Amino acid sequence: MGHHHHHHHIDSTTGKIKTAFFLNFFFTIIEFIGGLLTNSMAILSDALHDLGDSLSLGLAWFLQKFSRKEQSDHFSFGYRRFSLLAALINSVVLIVGSIFILTEAVPRLLNPEQPNAGGMIALSILGILVNGAAVFRLKGGDSMNQKIMTWHLLEDVLGWIAVLGVSIVMLFFDVPILDPIASIGITLFILYNVVKNLIQTMRLFLEGVPSGVDLEGLSRKINNLPDVQSTHHTHLWSMDGENHAFSTHIVVRAEATKEEICKVKEEVKEILHPISLEHITLEIEYEDEPCSLQ
Hints:
alpha+beta; 4-stranded mixed beta sheet; 11% strand
């Protein structure tokens, strides 16, 4: 049985994520209050977007620390998979929130209510500044968590620029219908991204082969090695979308020597090297030996 562990050093980005979380969270509270006071569905839609990002940042901050924990008797693969649970919770919260916003915004297309355009302008400028500061705090990070959150916050900045544009138009022209239109546009954009992420998360939960990895091609390369007769029970799955695990049974000649087996293991690890593997298990079987799983 060949057994291999490789641990990635987690980048010390906790402080940056923490700052961005508090910036976003406190501003989200201001947004919800401001959205209700200005009677603007567009502001409330963006508040929902920011709430989703606050949840993501909070969970990313917590998991950045939590995932440092080593494996235990209860979690032999460690705690990385908890980030998938976080992503699932976040997706459900955003989907429920988006449906609520749509049920409020769609009727307003028929009976538009004039929001407070001046208040909307003030909030959107504040939104651009706060989200811009959070982006600036997170940019240039190495961790996947940090990069994903930077993109989310950049989307927020763009959302606020859209709200600013709509509110400036409404300040000079009596077109209250622009507010629910902006709200529906922002909400549908959120829903599209959330559903896309949810599908990816569910695929990882169900232990699908990570996207972008050709398992058949890997198996073919291993089978083409000179000392390998065949392979079976080959599995590749992901712990958290970034760090993967691989296992396979490799059949060698009945008279294969220890040196040949060691060489096969090294060659297989070389083939697997381009993938971010946290865990590799290679079971070596001689061709005259029955497989333990058959």
